[in-house]
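S2.1 Query sequence (Cyclic di-GMP phosphodiesterase VC-1295-like MASE10 domain-containing protein)
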Amino acid sequence: MSRPALHYLATLVLIGIYGVQVCPFIDSLTPLQLVLLLILIIAIQYLLRFMVIGRLVDALGYKHQVSRAFQLEWGLFLLSGILLTAVNSLFYEFPVESGLKMILGFMTLGFLSPWTWRWTGSIGWPC
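Output structure tokens follow.
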């Protein structure tokens, strides 16, 4: 399993634990509701990453790939946090404050994401 895939799997576990610990609204969801929602959101995030990394990162010159990879990953994690907040607000009527906690959790993990990868070759991406 590649490092980005492992990081996304770890995100699934960590964001679930984090959400239950910091947000009583997330804690009120059944484990099945929480797990299914997180799997869906992180799977969408991983598929988006896989679809756009070639065009947005690999197509650039060596000097710009690292910063663009960071921007892409952080943006995808932010998008996942916003998506989770929107779903929880629309379907479960959670307050926005609950969502902000989850966005913070996703952004923190997204900030760490590019540094968990191992570079192969010159700057190849392990996918």
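Residues 62-92 form the longest helix (31 residues). The chain has a mean pLDDT of 88.
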